[in-house]
Structures are given as structure tokens and as C-alpha cells.
Write a structure and sequence with these properties.
mainly alpha; 2 helices
């Protein structure tokens, strides 16, 4: 049960580091893509809200709204 951990040889460590760097780069790319998607959704929601709010004012003139 008390297995001692062994440090891998330099070649194995180098391969592991290279794989981790690649994985980190893929995660960074995915994060940027998700950020882009979130921005697109937020833009769509903002446009929908604007259209909805402008639609409520249809038929009213600026003077009517001002008071």
C-alpha cells in the first residue's frame, strides 16, 4: 500500500510537458470560442430587449411619452 512514487525519466517528463502544453492551448482556444458565443447570445438578447421596448412605445409620440 505504501508505493513510492518514482520520478519519470527526462524523455517521459518532456513528453508529458508537451502534452500538457497542447491541452492548455486547446482549453484556451475553447474558452475563447465560448466567450465569443456568450457575446453573440448577449448581443441577441440585448437586441431583442431593445426591439421589445421600442415596440411598447409604438403609436406614441415623443411628446406623449414626455408628459
Amino acid at each position: 500500500m505504501n508505493q513510492q512514487l518514482q520520478i519519470p525519466d527526462p524523455q517521459t517528463r518532456a513528453q508529458s510537458v508537451a502534452r500538457w502544453r497542447e491541452v492548455n492551448q486547446q482549453i484556451d482556444l475553447l474558452t475563447l470560442q465560448l466567450d465569443e458565443l456568450i457575446a453573440m447570445v448577449e448581443t441577441g438578447l440585448r437586441e431583442q430587449r431593445l426591439a421589445r421596448l421600442q415596440g411598447k412605445g409604438k403609436g406614441q409620440t415623443a411628446e406623449t411619452i414626455k408628459g
